[in-house]
Amino acid sequence: TCPKACIGIITNPVNTTVAIAAEVLKKAGVYDKNKLFGVTTLDIIRSNTFVAELKGKQPGEVEVPVIGGHSGVTILPLLSQVPGVSFTEQEVADLTKRIQNAGTEVVEAKAGGGSATLSMGQAAARFGLSLVRALQGEQGVVECAYVEGDGQYARFFSQPLLLGKNGVEERKFIGTLSAFEQNALEGMLDTLKKDIALGEEFVNK
């Protein structure tokens, strides 16, 4: 009943569920790739928090762009692009691994009795409110999210997005990557593409 609504998918596995949603909407004749979002904001919140802890800052003072997907090795924080903060190679490797494994860490801490809940709610609220502000006409609202793009890396890919009255106004360039980030990006693409294919095949089988 709302064919022009913006839809945010936060249900895991986001790499796959967004592809499922896209195919279902396509079959209904209402798919708009500028209005379907995989909400990956939790990766940004975690990245900001871990960097702030390491560097003695407040999380609100840090903004780490996170690209790729929303699980394991497909999560790629671009630590080389954090203004005013520098990292050793070891810090980059350790932080990246911690951010990628943070969801698993929570499940293990809860002994399998659940996953991240409050932080997931915070992530949903942050992304939802950013989108509402943009829909209401606020200029310059940028959030990372997992969307269908130009297919340069994979059909769906998380990257910084300029949000606006029509959902995605612009898919922003991911910028220059460090050698570590470039290797990580190239190394994740097979996994990401397989996750996407699972969703496409689930709907079309």
Automatic annotation (TrEMBL):
GO terms for biological process: malate metabolic process; tricarboxylic acid cycle. One of its GO terms (molecular function) is L-malate dehydrogenase (NAD+) activity. The keyword Transcription regulation does not apply. Residues 40-203 form the Lactate/malate dehydrogenase C-terminal domain. GO terms for cellular component: cytoplasm. It catalyses: (S)-malate + NAD(+) = oxaloacetate + NADH + H(+). Keywords: NAD, Oxidoreductase, Tricarboxylic acid cycle. The keyword Protease does not apply. Its EC number is 1.1.1.37. Homodimer. Belongs to the LDH/MDH superfamily. MDH type 1 family. This is Malate dehydrogenase. It comes from Escherichia coli DORA_A_5_14_21.
